[in-house]
């Protein structure tokens, strides 16, 4: 099924004004985003799954946007990234964390780095490992793109290559835990048809953010959580393609 986009209008009261924001979804639950400055028209495309490439390009050009950056938040293990295809069709540069193994990366970032789409629109990168060692979340005015670091009512699994439950605990309880409650959370996956959450609600009700200790969290993620998850059938092929 072709990727579907979900419009979040800046004047709806649901999202902060001042910049273009569009969410894209494919049938398997992967979510990707286009963020752009309203004045400069500079755009960043975040986590483009392969099926999202054409709908994202259609949106970018329909809106008169200029793709500057393609942000892959981490080396995806469960699907094929469309970053290389987007790079071949635009002048945008691929952005990933400095630990990402891909040879296609043009700009490597570390925790706290910023790239600017406009005078008032920074992309601030937070290193949020656990699901993957090179995972970054993207902090925007009023919202955060959390990829697999924080999902709605859950978090990314830590039993895949380069996953680490201890680092995932630090990401949830210290990095996410220190951010403002009012931030809107836009994850990299959702399987229930939801578009976003609110960070304060996640802190209060997300089971993965309410363990009584680090040891209890790590034990659950390493021993019990894998048994609740479905196998990743394209693991080897996806990793090989996305790491190349």
State the name of the first-level CATH class: Alpha Beta
SSE topology string: EEEEHEHEEEEEEHEEHHH
Please work out how many helical segments DSSP would assign: 6
The level of helicity is 10-25%
Uncertain spans, ≥5 residues at pLDDT below 50? 4-13
Largest sheet: 7 strands, mixed
**Computed CA radius of gyration, to the nearest angstrom:** 17 Å
Q: Which term fits the overall shape? A: globular
Overall mean pLDDT stands at 91
CATH homologous superfamily classification? Ribonuclease Z/Hydroxyacylglutathione hydrolase-like
Number of domains: 1
Strand content: 25-35%
- The tally of beta strands, per DSSP, is 13
Order of strands across the main sheet: 1-2-3-4-5-6-7
**C-alpha termini separation:** 26 Å
CATH-derived topology: Metallo-beta-lactamase, Chain A
In short:
It contains 6 helices and 13 strands. The protein has 244 residues and is an alpha/beta fold.
């Amino acid at each position: 099924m072709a990727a579907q986009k979900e419009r979040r209008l800046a004047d709806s009261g649901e999202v902060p004004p001042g910049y273009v924001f569009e969410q894209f979804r494919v049938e398997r639950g992967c979510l990707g985003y286009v963020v752009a400055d309203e004045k400069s028209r500079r755009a960043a495309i975040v986590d483009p799954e392969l099926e999202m490439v054409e709908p994202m390009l259609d949106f970018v050009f329909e809106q008169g946007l200029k793709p500057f950056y393609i942000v892959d938040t981490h080396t995806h293990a469960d699907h094929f990234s469309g970053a290389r295809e987007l790079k071949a069709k635009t002048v945008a540069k691929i952005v990933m964390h400095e630990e990402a193994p891909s040879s296609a990366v043009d700009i490597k970032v570390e925790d706290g780095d910023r790239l600017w789409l406009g005078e008032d629109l920074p992309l601030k990168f937070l290193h949020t490992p656990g699901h993957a060692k090179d995972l970054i979340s993207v902090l925007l005015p009023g919202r955060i793109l959390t990829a697999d670091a924080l999902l709605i009512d859950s978090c990314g699994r830590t039993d895949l290559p380069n996953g680490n439950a201890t680092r995932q605990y630090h990401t949830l309880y210290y990095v996410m835990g220190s951010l403002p409650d009012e931030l809107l959370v836009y994850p990299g996956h959702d399987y229930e048809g939801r578009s976003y959450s609110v960070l304060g609600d996640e802190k209060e009700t997300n089971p993965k953010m309410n363990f009584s200790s680090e040891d209890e969290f790590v034990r659950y993620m390493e021993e019990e959580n894998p048994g609740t998850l479905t196998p990743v059938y394209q693991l080897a092929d996806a990793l090989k393609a996305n790491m190349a």
